[in-house]
Design a protein that fits this description.
Distance between the termini: 41 Å
CATH architecture: 6 Propeller
Helix content: under 10%
CATH topology: Neuraminidase
CATH superfamily: TolB, C-terminal domain
Strand order of the largest sheet: 1-24-23-22
Strand content: over 45%
Order of helices and strands: EEEEEEEEEEEEEEEEEEEEEHEEE
InterPro entries: 6-blade_b-propeller_TolB-like, Quino_amine_DH_bsu
CATH class: Mainly Beta
Number of helices: 1
Number of domains: 1
Number of strands: 24
Largest sheet: 4 strands, antiparallel
Shape: globular
Length: about 290
């Protein structure tokens, strides 16, 4: 199968606070446009791989230099995608007739390795370096942890607050030893846990809107989220939201970021709704 017509563009915000982490053009990537329209993005921190799920149900694999390595097409639509670092497995969450399934496929061939049905309402998924799968049990305020090939799980309850927590999305932090949980209610209420379920950090924002797969982590002290198609820097240490600048205001209102990922130490990738600029790649320098 021939490689798709893909290259990546640069985009630089002009409104970044000079005292805050900066985005820079990524010098090794081309400026040409491309036709790939990604719906979801995830990364393998260990092997430094980037995975894109596009509107044609294809999964594309890239290395850190964004050279296209592989692609295959699924025969079903998925709501979440994650990888087990340092393995050849991709985990997919599929909803079918009000039931939720985890499909595990080979990252090179796309062939099904195993699958199982989840017993409750689950939202986001992520994997740790040992291949354990973490899912958001939305109705029970729990994070469930599955062994890679076993439909048997352990779990931990999100640390109690004075309101009901509803975990919606979970992502492994680049340190590979903690997870960041986004709660649907209250909106933009984030928590950081270690892999045993111990609460490490809580931070929030007054914004009431969220977008699925709209955040990523740069390190233990910062996260980046997408609000109304604008990117904001969230400093976990001071619990403040810093606007990096609306990318639409920088080069036109057609830039509408909705899915983002960070691959340490410096590659930040943005998927847009734009036809002209579907994907931007930046060099990000966190604290």
């Amino acid at each position: 199968m021939s490689s798709p017509e893909i290259s990546f563009t640069h985009l630089v915000t002009m409104e970044t606070d000079p005292q805050r982490p900066l985005f820079y053009p990524f010098p090794s990537l081309s400026m040409e446009s491309h036709k790939l329209r990604a719906l979801m993005i995830t990364v393998d921190y260990v092997r430094e791989l980037v995975f894109l799920y596009d509107e044609d149900r294809q999964i594309h694999t890239f290395n850190k230099q964004l050279q296209h390595l592989n692609q295959f097409k699924l025969n079903f639509h998925v709501e979440s995608i994650t990888t087990a670092p340092d393995s050849n497995l991709i985990f997919l969450k599929q909803s079918l007739c009000k039931e939720t399934f985890i499909q595990v496929v080979d990252m090179f061939s796309g062939s099904l390795v195993t699958s199982w049905k989840l017993s409750s309402c689950h939202m986001g998924i992520t994997c740790d370096s040992s291949g354990n799968l973490y899912t958001c049990d939305y109705l029970n305020s729990r994070i469930k942890i599955f062994d890679m090939f076993e439909p048997v799980s352990t779990s931990f309850t999100l640390s109690p607050m004075n309101f009901q927590l509803t975990p919606y999305t979970v992502k492994l932090a680049p340190d590979k030893f903690s997870i960041l949980v986004q709660n649907l209610e209250p909106a933009f209420f984030f928590q950081v846990y270690d892999l045993c379920g111990n609460l490490l950090k809580t931070f929030s924002n007054n914004k009431e809107n969220y977008v699925r797969d709209s955040f990523t982590t740069a390190n233990m002290n910062c996260a980046i989220v997408c609000i109304h198609h604008e990117l904001h820097f969230l400093d976990q240490q001071s619990d403040t939201m810093i606007t990096l600048g609306g990318f639409g205001r920088t080069i036109g209102s057609f830039i509408r970021p909705f899915a983002i990922a960070f691959l340490p130490p410096d590659l930040f990738i943005i998927c847009n709704e734009s036809v002209s600029y579907p994907i931007q790649c930046l060099n990000f320098q966190p604290f």
